[in-house]
Write a structure and sequence with these properties.
The chain is mainly alpha-helical. Helices cover 64% and strands 0% of the residues.
């Protein structure tokens, strides 16, 4: 799985892409990055992937109880 999709389910990725495409076609006109809903979605997705990558790194570093 690529780094940009780490920890994201197939359903989430499909729903995210459809929503992003709909906002691209029928969304608001040009807005600043702070107000653009597509940019907000991209930032939220990047944050979600970063949380999943961090959680995975913590799990891999944790000593096993065996």
């Amino acid at each position: 799985m690529s780094d940009k999709n780490e920890g994201l389910s197939l359903g989430y990725r499909i729903r995210w892409r459809l929503t992003w495409l709909l906002l691209h076609v029928a969304g608001p006109a040009s807005l600043s990055d702070a107000q653009d809903p597509r940019r907000r979605m991209e930032r939220e997705r990047a944050a979600r992937v970063a949380r999943n990558q961090q959680a995975r790194a913590v799990r891999e570093q944790a000593p096993t109880g065996r």
